Amino acid sequence: MRLDDQDESNNVEDRRGENYGGAGFGNGLGFGRGSMGIGVLIAALAASYFFGIDPLTLLGLVSNFQTPPAAHVSAHKPPAEDPAARFVAKILASTESTWDQIFRENGERYVRPKLVLFSGATPTACGTGQSAMGPFYCPADQRVYIDLAFYRDLRQRFHAPGEFAQAYVIAHEVGHHVQHLLGISERVQRAQQGTTRARANALSVRLELQADCFAGVWGHRADAAKHIIEPGEVEQALTAASAIGDDRLQQQSQGRIVPESFTHGTSAQRVRWFKLGMESGDIRRCDTFKTASP
Ligand SMILES: [Zn+2]
Asked: What residue ranges in 82-135 does DSSP mark as E strands?
């Protein structure tokens, strides 16, 4: 990517190396303080299911078990000479100016999320965040959480190298923040309560595909504004979107595919919706809830 002209966001918090043990995790059964942390559930449900479950989805299923927001957590700025942190700060800034503009065009104001770099585990208002969950967004504290070790997995385990693939991951999580601001995630969460597991999963898929489409919208508009994408790089995001499709992940982890259990969409669906956003730059193209089969 060409990011020389790109500012860095001030909204990156560096919690790497803080060695947080976690109230709901790492202490035996993890029923600390009488409540079951989302981290515990994540560990139970998603131990082998990388990048598979957003806390967003879980919140809908386990809202009675939420831990209270974490107390004080320090918010350091990342060191200036840290290429990985600077890259993240530039991509976040790019999403900020893009979404600032889209919201303004629609007569709304974009509230910028924070992005937390952490290593291992960190407290969030959605429970303990774990690296093994992959990057995620917590609507209760409006923060995107990422352990940069995920980028190594993206390269090595998912065979999706490249800066634009890394940027896509951030843009997808920012897409969840946009859904939160627009009230979409909360509507989905309500609809997921009291319905079947299969139906709740199908709604989750639509939410995820929309976040992919929003990531594409960011890519389109950021490139139109600053020419940040170099030739061939769009393919990197498509490779990443494809590599983390539910069908591909299940095939790899279980050797079989169970469509009713999908929560993020197939590889083909993820690629299709990212492309729709990327080619149009238009959020109205991202209505994954209207279409009969996304
Ligand atoms: Zn997601």
From this structure: 114-118, 121-124, 127-130
What is the CA(108)–ligand 1 centre distance, in A?
23
CA 101–ligand 1 middle distance (angstroms):
23
CB 137 within 8 A of CB 173: yes
Task: Measure the CA dihedral 124/22/171/213, to 10°.
Answer: -80
Q: Alpha-carbon distance 173 to 87, whole Å?
A: 16
13-56 tens-digit pLDDT: 999 988 776 543 332 222 222 233 444 333 333 332 334 444 33
CA 66/CA 31 separation, integer angstroms: 12
Q: Which residues surround ligand 1, an ion (CB under 5 A)?
A: 54, 208, 211
CA–centroid distance, 205 to ligand 1, in Å, is: 9
pTM tops 0.70, yes or no: yes
- What separation in Å is there between the alpha carbon of 235 and the centre of ligand 1? 19
Interval 68-123: pLDDT, tens: 445 456 678 999 899 999 999 999 999 999 999 999 999 999 999 999 999 999 99
State how far the Cα of 115 lies from the Cα of 9, in Å rounded to an integer: 9
